[in-house]
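Usage

Read records sequentially. Each one opens with the input sequence:
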Amino acid sequence: RRLAAIRPRRDSRSRSPPRARVAASLLRAFSRASAMFATTTVASGRTTPGPIGARRRLTRGEVPMSSTPRRALTSDARGKALSSRGARACVANGALIHGGVGARARGDGREANGRAYGAQMCSVLAMYDPNGAMEDGRETLMRELSARMVTRGPDGSGYFGSKRYGLAHERLAIMDPEGGKQPIVYEDGAKTYAVCANGEIYNFRKLQAKYGLTAAKTGSDSEVLLQLYKHLGVDFVKELNGIFGFVVVGDDGDHMIAARDHAGIKPLYIGYGKNGVKWFASELKAICDQDCERIEEFPAGHYWTPKDGFVKWYNPAWDSDDDDAVGTKDTSHVRAILEKAIIDQTMADVPIGLLLSGGLDSAVVSTVLKPMLEKSGQEYLSFTVGQEGSPDVTAARMMSEYLGTTHHEYLFTSEEACANIENVIYHLETYEPELIRSAIPNYFLAKLTSQHVKVVLTGEGSDELFAGYLYFRDAPSSKHIHNELRRIFGALHNVNCQRADRMTMAHGLEARVPFLDPRVIDAVMEVDPEFKRIEGEAKPEKHALRALFDGEIPDPVLWRTKAMQCEGVGLNWVEDLQKFCDEQVSDEDFAKAESTYPINPPHSKEEMYYRRIFEKHYHGMDKFVHVWEGGCRAGGAAWENNQYTRAGVKNVQQLAKGLTGVKGA
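and closes with the structure output:
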């Protein structure tokens, strides 16, 4: 039985949420929800059935702090899984095994036409060695370095090379376990072409049809990169719709191209070695100690060739200082484009889950996703992380019950968060404090989710398009809103995208981000910023997006106040985290912060503790780590803000608005 009382009547999509309507909805929703969860108890291994609805699985995990993050990759994260259920569920008690590939659901890897589809989220390691300076022992070295990224691709590895290049790959096989192995190699007479790719090319079949490309030799979407390179040369990158970092080598090493997707959703680094050697790697850990003269992040929306160096291929019309670059449209075209992006990103014939935070963005994705899963007959799996009584957990339970999902929760403690700081920084490869705080709960969430599925959809990127952060309340004009969105969108590759990729890939999980489909980005950035302006209670943050789904998402979730990742999972745990960090750094050491770390010197003991851990694993790599001006996202805005400081949001109690029973509110 669904929580029908939550669903409001459907009125105009442009209306604002009167307080009386929200209050009435809250009373109805939580009286029903409270009754449900109150009658579902766990005692002595038995579960008392509650009313029929979504089933909810609760995971309380304790992840022991390993002596090194490398040991943590193979250590058991022992926790206890308790299932509270409706009529469909069964009782389950067991161990949550860290990195247990065999525990994940598998599909048969076949499309309706019987052809295998080979999607993979993996790692890339490539060496361009035009003079053959490192030919001797290259394969052994590259296989060892590539293995450092094994969590990105625990299902297999591969290598291919010649005198002038080498390609190594760690593979997370979602389908076509044989045909989709990488590197993929074409023999064309005396010439050899090869590709090593990380990511998804969502429009690969359309491109094959558009250019009449010959039948693919594998079921992998990555193969189209080889086909297009041979057919179009480097300009093919502009036609890709996907998330990717790849290297294609042509003419047996005479020509090559490396490229990264439009928003930097998938990672890529470039290292400049001696004798003209160039390294390309999905993660910093693979090449940080390889005697490079310098290492840089490969810029998002660019490709690189030996002849031309970096070339920016992603140049959207809205990303300009010109006045006519500011959007002028309404929002009527946005929903259809967003729905198409979500459809395209569910193309894999494997079970797909949803990271359901309880916020607006994941609620929107979940609403569009529901009929698709119903049509395919697939079980609807949702996953949430937080502390008991947190805003995210409270709202996600409501949304799960409303949708009828099989819901999984990871409830963590402050102590557990503190014990895993080093693991998170090792995988995240940064010392940026705001990002680390938000990544810690995501680390736990990915660990849980990877035990059930290999692919998840997320709501990442919406705030950078719809002006979702609370400091936009103080934006003085439409032009300011537009330019600020350009600024924070341009940093996505160092923030949201880095967090989403590294935390999921630390557990062999593929995350997809439909809000960052280039068609969705263009559609929303074409909207007049006045539709994104925050005007008190009548027009809260992301009102333009909320109005598109008014009547389809429960009011307490639809009109919930925006909470950043580290805030919604618990109102007070960040204070515990910061207190723990303070205790690890002496006053004497902190007084030397500027001399010890002249690049981006720490401003607090918390920041200094993170920096120490980063330097332990990535010494000398601090120069290109992105740090927000002012220590937080809002610090670099062109106006003063009253919402955020370096330590986080000033008023955490506002994040519980519209929700009852939130702990600490």
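Summary fields computed downstream for this record:
- Residues 1-53, 63-119 have pLDDT under 50 and may be disordered.
- The longest strand covers residues 191-201.
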